[in-house]
DNA sequence: GCTTATATATTAACCGTTTGACATATAGAT
DNA sequence: ATCTATATGTCAAACGGTTAATATATAAGC
């Protein structure tokens, strides 16, 4: 593996000159530039990123912490972030925390030790001031972690409003809401508040139940869905806080012979691919994941040059109507 | 941010002593060990991983290249690999190649420049000898890339056999096979060969169609499914090369009023979460993703110490029966 | 008491870059 | 011919670790 020194020797200049060219500082004659380029090509030179980062006291890694990579919503986040990070000349260090604070802290230490350029947090960690643990910009996605850490969210409150309005407009007389684990993501609770507000304004009765953290991670909600329907057989519309719950509602209704959308209408949340693949396909609230991720990555990149970034950014959501309503 | 030197000064020894302790080389008195530990704690010292890697000429990053992170099968791979990599003291650099050779090469150069400890390839790159591009162990998942690059696969041929046998045992009289893009993953083609062999042995007629690369990436197979059914209205069993196609078959049958499993039986491949969430749920061939990933990560770790690893490893698959058959 | 083995600490070079300080060459202005 | 800008290049010290070679202290063996 050839080094800067090899390139310098081969092209008859010093390492400083080569480095200067590589980093676009100072002046370089066209002739020298040519010589260096030729040498680099000939030696198949690739700058050692570790040495470079050590010297600059900053790597071009960006850390992304998600609870899990097997949850389809986070997959979308991972996919978007990876493309954006790479597109901006950085590299993605992926961390899955299982939503455990202990693991999140370990990852923070690890990322800090690798001198990452920034961290994007899509995992919980309520009320922990992580900024002390790392000397790099942090930004959280769809969660507000502490007053000082910037966040980029979608309009969860509005999402709840859209869902409730849609169900009511479609003729539902009694609604239900099933949330993910409200403990894990306080922001997402706003979906319920929006939903609730509309129900109350329109005088439509509703019930609400909350899944546990364990259910969220294992993605198994059958039990609570069954008991919800058992104890409220008159419900004709369900708004779920994520699409995975919605898919299971559909499954259970089908088993129980409840026809969708005739007897029961379902609105999910997130708009993951699953919505399209289900039969019937799922009406849902579309989160602008791409926009959110783009903002997050941009923030990290901008903060490299100490440019100020807004502390709170909110993107609008939209309702996507499919077969389940 | 404190350094080794700070720790050494604070505990009244030299950096070598501290480093020696950190790396568990040579001898350290219990007293010294205590002093150093106290100093490290007090200074909240974290070794700079970049410096360490530079010095050792090898980082503890492991690169994973997948076509896309939004495909549910690869999500599972990402999730498994991340956990295993972290569990072995490494960090995951995630790369999404879109199955483009050019991008894969770029990623290889990038990974090489970051002195990764190894690369796990779950993306195509047929017949390119990537080992020249990087001085680190490479291992491919579910693909055979070149004679010299080790791979870990599941038994695709057997998967095809299980699927066909199951459909025939369930009473199907005419079968169809829809493959992903056979161009992208030659290994997966063996699923068809296994399927074909059983059909021929049992004297069951079949048709086979192949999706395009574009369809694989966009996950939209509706067109070919419609035309398959249009031109072969007598098919009563379909074996698809991945679960996403299977979900769409179910969707289209439902639209066309073809009842599943009564009039049409469907077997998918991979056993991603989607199978459970679909209505009806999907019978599929289960790939032991965890085992495969574990083997892959272990291989990379073992090769750090130049331990030999087998060039080809194959894991068995199983059929998981659900509602679609 | 002297030699040897074992335990512990030190010095300094190296990993591959970046970069501030400084040197030299060239050309234009006076 | 001298002075000043401007262009081009060089030296050497960081960055934060690792590690081979070497020195010193301690205990054991005879």
Structural class of chain A: alpha/beta
| Text of the CATH class of the largest domain in chain A | Alpha Beta
> What fold name stands as the CATH topology of the largest domain in chain A?
Rossmann fold
Largest sheet of chain A: 6 strands, parallel
Query: Can you name the CATH architecture of the largest domain in chain A?
Result: 3-Layer(aba) Sandwich
DSSP helix count of chain A?
13
By DSSP, the count of extended strands of chain A is 12
Report the principal-axis shape of chain A: elongated
CATH superfamily of the largest domain in chain A: Response regulator
Q: How would you spell out the order of helices and strands of chain A?
A: HHHHEHEHEEEHEHEHHEHEHEHEE
**Any idea how many domains of chain A?**
3
Q: Pair with the most extensive interface?
A: A-B, 49 and 49 residues
Uncertain segments of chain A are: none
Could you give the distance between the termini of chain A?
A: 61 Å
Domain HTH cro/C1-type (chains A, B): 3-50
GO molecular function (chains A, B): DNA-binding transcription factor activity; transcription cis-regulatory region binding
Protein name (chains A, B): HTH-type transcriptional regulator DegA
InterPro entries (chains A, B): Cro/C1-type_HTH (IPR001387), HTH_LacI (IPR000843), LacI/GalR-like_sensor (IPR046335), Lambda_DNA-bd_dom_sf (IPR010982), Peripla_BP_I (IPR028082)
